[in-house]
Write a structure and sequence with these properties.
It catalyses: L-alanine = D-alanine. The protein is an alpha/beta fold and 815 residues long. The chain is 31% helix and 22% strand. It has 26 helices and 41 strands. The structure holds pyridoxal-5'-phosphate.
C-alpha cells in the first residue's frame, strides 16, 4: 500500500490529528515485531479479548510516529493520530478499498485443512512466474486477511490469500472485502465444525467466499460439497478434484504402487514422480495442478515445479550455535516477503549483536538496482554488526549496506574465509536462495551435531495456550508451569517465548530454576513452588515469589526477608491443603495464619491449591469437594486479610473440565504441550514435541540369528533390522524393548527388537517399503504419538518428557 494519512482518513471516515501528508506504506499491529518504522503506522487493534492500546507506548518507543487508534493519548508527543471508531472495521474498510483498486489476479483458499500448505506450494510454484503477494502466515482472518491484502502493491500481478473462518457469519464480512477470481476449496473436515449446527452449515458458510469468483476449484470427494457447489454456483466454471473417479481431475493409476503417478486433467494426462504418498499430500497435489493449469502454466513446467517442491519447510529454525551464537536458518527460499518475516523473527531474540548472511535473490523480473535498494533498506533498519553478501548480483550493491559488509562469490568462499566462525555471542541469520546451499553454513555454525533431536514447535505451544485462553474470561490470568526444565523441553527457551506472548506468571519448582531464568533476562513474575530453606536469600535477591505452605516456611522466609533489608511488602503465595495431601495449610490453621500474616511485612499475592484428580472423570465428586473446600477456606482467609489476593486452583485438565472454577488465574502445564486426557480436547490441541533420530545401519539378518545383548530376539526368517542411535541413556526406558514399544518410519510403526542398549537399539523394518540408512525415525510425535509412547512405557506423558536425557539436543521451531 501507499497512501497519505489524509487519503487513509478519507477512505475510512477517520479523523486526523497531526500531519496529514505523511506517507504510509505499512501498518504494523504487533509492537514487538515492528521491523521498519519508515512510512509505517501502528494500529492498536481492540478485540473482545484484548486492547492493543496498551502497546502504543512500546510502538512509540520503537520510533513509530503514526498511530491508528480508537482513542488519542496526549502524553505521547509528536505523534500523528488517525482516530477511528472501530479498529477492526477500519482495517477491513481500508483493505476492501485497497483490494478493489488493485489489478490483481487473485486466488482465495478456504476449507478446513491444507490451506496453508497449498498457499505455500502455490507461492513456491508461482512467485517467479508473476510478482506474487500472499498471506504471510495463518493468522486470524478477521484481522489477518485485511493486513495481508494491504501488502498488495502496484508491482504485484497475483495474490494468494488464505481465508479461515471458525464461526457462523464470519465469511460475509470477509467476502465483502475480498472476492477472489479463483476460489479454491480444500478438504472440509471437522475443524471448527463444533461452532456450526451441521456440516452443511459449515459448507454453506465457507463457499460464500466464492460469490463473485469466476472459477471454483474444489475437492469433490465430499458428496455434500459436490452437490452444494453444483447447485448454488451452477453458472460458474467449476472444476472438482479428488480421488473419486467422478472428479474432473483425479489419479489414473493406483497411487499406492511405487511408480510415477498419472493425473487425468479432463482428457489430458500428466505424469510425475511423487516422494510422499500419503492421502493429504496427494490430494493437495491435485489442487495445486488444477490451479496451475487454470493460471495457464504448461504441463512441462508443472511437472518441473512439482519436482522442485520440497516438503514445505516454511519454518525458521533457531539453533544453538558454536561460541554462544544463536543461528537462525532460513536457507530454503529467498524473496522480499520471506526476508521480512525472517527479520521480524530476529527481533524476537534479545541478543545485542547480530550478523546476516544474505545471497542473491534469484528469479525476479524487477530491475535489480531497485530490488537491492529495497533489500538494503530493510537490512539497514536492523543495524547488523556484520553483513555477509554472497552472489554476483548482490555484491555489486555492497555500498548500499551500512553495516560492516563482506562480499563473496559463493558459499564456499565464505566458508574458506573463516570470518564467520570467529563470530561470538551473536544472533546470526542465514537467509539465502536454495541454489546457494547456505545450509552448509548451518552445519559449520551449529554447536553439537547429533542426529537425535527433540524438536519443540513453539507455534504449537502458542496455539495450545490460545485454545485454553479461549475457554477463560478475558480477565483471568494464566501461569505457565515451566518447572523441571519446562517438562524437559528447555526452561529458558520456553519461558522467553511465553514472556514474549505476555504470560502473566511462570511457575518453577526450585529457586535455582528461577534464578537461571532471571540471569538470562526473564522478567515475568516467577513463583517457586518448593522454596528450600537454603534458597531464601537467592529468592529475595532474584525477586522470585515463594509458595508458602506451612508455618515453618512462613517464619523462616519472613526472617530472611527481614535480614535482607527488603523494605516493601514481599510477595508470597499461600498454598491451601484441600485434599491432595501434599503441601499446604489445613483448615484448622487458618485463624493462626491470618494472625501471623497480619503483623508481617508480607503481601499475599495469591491464595491457591491443587487438584489431585482433575483429569479423572470418575473422581468428579471428590474434585468438586476439593473445589468447595477451596472456595470456603480461601474466602475465609481473604475476609481476615482485608484485601483481595488472586485465587487459583486449576491445572490444564482443570481448565477444560471445571470451567466454572477458573477464579483469577489458572496454571497451565501439560495442556500447553498439547496433551489432554480428554479425547475431545485432545483433538483441539497441537502436538508440540517430536523426538527424532535417523537410521545408522540396516542389516539383513539370516534366519535363526540373534539380535542384541543376551540374544533376546531370534529371527525366524531373513529379517531386515535397522540400528538407531538412541538408547536408555537418552531416556528410552529399557522395559519397552523386546517388541513392547515401536518407533515410526514413514508413518509406519516398526517394533523395537531385542534388549535396548545404552546408546542404541534395533528395530525390525521388514514391513517398511523403501527404508534406507539415514532415514528419519520418529521415537514419538505423530506415529507413535507421545501418548502411545507413554503407554508402551506404562507411564504418563509427563514422565516420558522429563526423562529425556539432557544430551538429546533440543531445537525450537517457529513459523
Ligand atoms: C505442575 C503443576 C501444574 C500444571 O499441571 P498440568 O497437569 O501439567 O497442567 C499446576 N499447578 C501446580 C501446583 C503444579 O505443580
Amino acid at each position: 500500500m501507499n497512501y497519505t494519512v489524509q487519503q487513509i482518513a478519507e477512505i475510512t471516515n477517520a479523523q486526523v490529528i497531526g500531519d496529514k501528508n505523511l506517507l504510509i506504506k505499512n501498518i504494523a499491529f504487533d509492537s514487538r515485531i515492528i521491523y521498519s518504522t519508515k512510512n509505517a503506522a501502528f494500529i492498536a487493534i481492540n478485540t473482545q479479548k484484548n486492547s492493543g492500546e496498551k502497546f502504543i507506548e512500546s510502538a512509540v518507543d520503537r520510533g513509530i510516529t503514526v498511530i491508528i487508534s480508537e482513542h488519542q493519548y496526549p502524553q505521547f508527543e509528536n505523534i500523528t493520530w488517525i482516530i477511528v471508531k472501530n479498529s477492526v472495521e477500519f482495517l477491513q474498510k481500508l483493505a476492501q478499498h485497497h483490494f478493489e483498486n488493485s489489478n490483481l489476479k487473485s486466488v482465495g483458499i478456504t476449507g478446513s485443512n491444507g490451506k496453508t500448505i497449498l498457499k505455500e506450494w502455490l507461492y513456491q510454484c508461482l512467485w517467479n512466474e508473476f510478482p506474487t503477494v500472499k498471506s504471510p502466515k495463518s493468522f486470524n482472518s478477521q484481522i489477518g486477511l485485511p493486513l495481508s491484502l494491504l501488502q498488495i502493491n502496484e508491482s504485484h500481478q497475483l495474490g494468494i490469500f488464505e481465508v479461515g473462518i471458525s464461526m457462523p457469519n464470519e465469511m460475509d464480512v470477509l467476502e465483502n472485502i475480498f472476492h477472489p477470481q479463483i476460489g479454491l476449496l480444500t478438504h472440509i473436515g471437522t475443524a471448527h465444525a463444533a461452532n456450526f449446527y451441521s456440516e452443511e452449515d459449515l459448507i454453506d458458510e465457507k463457499i460464500k467466499l466464492f460469490k463473485d469468483s469466476k472459477v471454483i476449484i474444489f475437492n469433490g470427494d465430499n458428496i455434500l460439497v459436490n452437490r452444494k457447489i453444483r447447485e448454488i454456483y451452477s453458472s460458474k466454471k467449476l472444476i472438482s478434484y479428488g480421488f473419486n473417479q467422478h472428479n474432473d481431475v483425479t489419479f489414473k493409476n493406483n497411487i499406492s504402487k511405487n511408480e510415477d503417478v498419472v493425473v487425468t486433467y479432463f482428457d489430458e494426462e500428466i505424469t510425475f514422480p511423487v516422494h510422499q504418498r500419503d492421502e493429504a499430500t496427494l490430494t493437495n497435489a491435485l489442487a495445486l495442478i488444477t490451479v496451475l493449469k487454470e493460471l495457464g502454466i504448461s504441463n512441462d513446467k508443472i511437472v518441473d515445479k512439482i519436482n522442485a517442491l520440497k516438503a514445505v519447510e516454511m519454518r525458521l529454525e533457531a539453533i544453538e550455535g558454536i561460541k554462544n551464537n544463536i543461528v537462525i536458518n532460513d536457507s530454503f527460499n529467498l524473496d522480499l516477503d520471506s526476508l521480512k518475516t525472517a527479520l521480524q523473527f530476529l527481533n524476537e531474540y534479545k541478543k545485542s549483536k547480530k550478523s546476516l548472511v544474505l545471497t542473491d535473490i534469484i528469479g525476479v523480473n524487477t530491475n535489480s538496482k531497485e530490488l537491492y535498494e529495497e533489500v538494503s533498506e530493510l537490512v539497514n533498519e536492523q543495524h547488523f554488526d556484520n553483513v555477509f553478501l554472497i552472489g554476483e548480483e548482490i555484491t555489486k550493491f555492497k555500498d548500499l549496506f551500512k553495516s560492516k559488509t563482506f562480499t563473496f562469490i559463493d558459499t564456499q568462499e565464505l566458508i574458506d574465509n573463516k570470518y564467520l566462525i570467529e563470530i561470538e555471542n551473536q544472533i546470526i541469520l542465514l537467509k539465502g536462495a536454495r541454489k546457494f546451499e547456505i545450509e552448509k553454513l548451518k552445519d559449520l555454525l551449529e554447536l553439537r551435531k547429533h542426529d537425535t533431536v527433540l524438536e519443540v514447535n513453539l507455534n504449537a505451544i502458542l496455539h495450545n495456550i490460545n485454545y485454553h485462553k479461549s475457554l477463560l474470561k478475558p480477565s483471568t490470568k494464566m501461569m505457565a508451569m515451566v518447572k523441571a526444565n519446562a517438562y524437559g523441553l528447555g526452561s529458558y527457551e520456553i519461558s522467553e517465548f511465553l514472556q514474549h506472548h505476555h504470560i502473566n506468571y511462570l511457575g518453577v519448582a526450585y529457586a535455582d530454576e528461577g534464578v537461571e531464568l532471571r540471569k538470562k533476562g526473564i522478567t515475568t513474575p516467577i513463583v517457586v513452588m518448593n522454596p528450600e530453606q537454603h534458597s531464601y536469600d537467592a529468592i529475595i535477591q532474584y525477586n522470585l515469589e515463594p509458595e508458602i505452605y506451612s508455618f515453618r516456611v512462613l517464619e523462616l522466609f519472613y526472617e530472611a526477608v527481614q535480614k535482607s533489608g527488603y523494605d516493601k511488602k514481599y510477595p508470597i503465595h499461600i498454598k491451601l491443603e484441600t485434599g491432595m495431601h501434599r503441601l499446604g495449610f489445613k483448615e484448622y490453621e487458618l485463624d493462626q495464619l491470618s494472625q501471623s500474616l497480619e503483623y508481617k511485612n508480607l503481601k499475599v499475592q495469591s491464595i491457591f491449591s491443587h487438584l489431585s484428580s482433575a483429569d479423572v472423570p470418575s473422581e468428579k465428586e471428590f474434585t468438586l469437594k476439593q473445589l468447595e473446600i477451596f472456595e470456603k477456606n480461601s474466602g475465609y482467609l481473604i475476609k481476615n486479610l482485608g484485601y483481595q489476593p488472586l485465587r487459583h486452583i486449576l491445572n490444564s485438565s482443570g481448565i477444560t473440565n471445571y470451567s466454572s472454577h477458573h477464579y483469577d488465574m489458572v496454571r497451565i502445564g501439560i495442556g500447553m504441550l498439547g496433551e489432554s486426557a480428554n479425547a475431545d480436547i485432545q483433538k483441539q490441541l497441537q502436538s508440540t514435541v517430536s523426538f527424532k533420530t535417523v537410521i545408522s545401519q540396516i542389516s539383513l539378518v539370516e534366519n535363526g540369528e540373534s539380535v542384541g545383548y543376551s540374544r533376546k530376539y531370534k529371527t525366524d526368517h531373513l529379517t531386515k533390522i535397522a540400528t538407531i542411535p538412541v538408547g536408555y541413556a537418552d531416556g528410552i526406558p529399557r522395559l519397552i524393548g523386546n517388541q513392547i514399544g515401536n518407533v515410526g518410519i514413514n508413518k509406519t510403526l516398526a517394533p523395537i527388537v531385542g534388549n535396548i542398549c545404552m546408546d542404541m537399539m534395533m528395530i525390525k523394518v521388514d514391513d517398511i517399503p523403501n527404508v534406507k540408512e539415514g532415514d528419519t525415525v520418529t521415537v514419538f510425535n505423530a506415529k507413535p504419538s507421545l501418548k502411545e509412547f507413554a503407554e508402551y512405557c506404562k507411564t504418563i506423558t509427563y514422565e516420558v518428557l522429563t526423562s529425556i536425557s539432557p544430551r538429546v539436543k533440543r531445537i525450537y521451531i517457529k513459523d
